Amino acid sequence: MFSLSQTLSIFAALPDPVFILTRSGRYAAVLGGSDSRYYHDGTTLIGQYISQVIQQPKCEWFLSQIAQALLSRRLWVVEYSLGGNDVKGLTEQGPAEPIWFEGRVQALDFQIEGEDAVVWVASNITRRHQLEQELRERCERDPLTQLYNRRKLLKLLTENLTLFQRYRTPTSILIFDLDNLKKLNDSSGHLMGDKAIVTLGEVCLASLRSQDIASRYGGDEFVILMPHTAAEQALPIAERLRSECARRLRALGIAAECASISGGLSEFQCSDTSIDAVVSRADGALYQAKAQGRNRIVLAKGPKCTESP
């Protein structure tokens, strides 16, 4: 049907690079993938071994995928990234940023120079990966404040509670909200209420430590997760946050009775078996802050965790 030269031209025109790899990781052939906007030139790989080209531990990962495809004898699909730190002697020709690939690996039914081999088609999925990351980020962010949303917070709280139960690393959370939001909405309108909420989010982003995790829990309620932080360390952080929130709210022209926050602070305890217990305790301290006159942080009472993990 096709002459040898036509067949070779078809192989060379393949949009994505196709690697013929032996079990030991030798590049027996490299076909296609010649567009330097998406791929580096792979022809120099022919005859070399993956161990000569790819740094550890990624080299071992590639060899394990080849072995898995040979074992299963079925189409084996994987996703992976390759960047400058992974590849030895990377040329300047081709993309500079790390590239994400979908690898489609299929065992061949014949050997190459006495070795089992696979065909590995590598498709550049970097743009798709970026879009997935952006979508995931949007799903985890509150659109008004750009802080993490309730769903993401609950996931992080669960992860940190698991770590606490294992290692007993001190961890605290602060729940706070705007004082007299309804009065602010009634007197100045809901637009001003939204501005106040946005301002609280901005203060969280600007004032907290890099390790602290801020989220909008719902409405005007915010939660700050403070890993590796005992209550005694968390309290001055919460007080500085309260002071800065008041300053920024007053700068918006909000009346003093509405230009403040109240918060409840709690440390993870040995008796905590769920995040509900942690949140409930901090929420109770928040209600105490409201009852005591607002514009304050109340530390929830509870025994210090002295048990070993």
UniProtKB/TrEMBL annotation:
<dbReference type="GO" id="GO:1902201">
    <property type="term" value="P:negative regulation of bacterial-type flagellum-dependent cell motility"/>
</dbReference>
<dbReference type="GO" id="GO:0043709">
    <property type="term" value="P:cell adhesion involved in single-species biofilm formation"/>
</dbReference>
<dbReference type="InterPro" id="IPR050469">
    <property type="entry name" value="Diguanylate_Cyclase"/>
</dbReference>
<dbReference type="GO" id="GO:0052621">
    <property type="term" value="F:diguanylate cyclase activity"/>
</dbReference>
<dbReference type="GO" id="GO:0005886">
    <property type="term" value="C:plasma membrane"/>
</dbReference>
<protein>
    <submittedName>
        <fullName>GGDEF domain-containing protein</fullName>
    </submittedName>
</protein>
<feature type="domain" description="GGDEF">
    <location>
        <begin position="169"/>
        <end position="302"/>
    </location>
</feature>
<dbReference type="InterPro" id="IPR029787">
    <property type="entry name" value="Nucleotide_cyclase"/>
</dbReference>
<dbReference type="InterPro" id="IPR043128">
    <property type="entry name" value="Rev_trsase/Diguanyl_cyclase"/>
</dbReference>
<dbReference type="InterPro" id="IPR000160">
    <property type="entry name" value="GGDEF_dom"/>
</dbReference>
<dbReference type="Pfam" id="PF00990">
    <property type="entry name" value="GGDEF"/>
</dbReference>
<dbReference type="InterPro" id="IPR035965">
    <property type="entry name" value="PAS-like_dom_sf"/>
</dbReference>
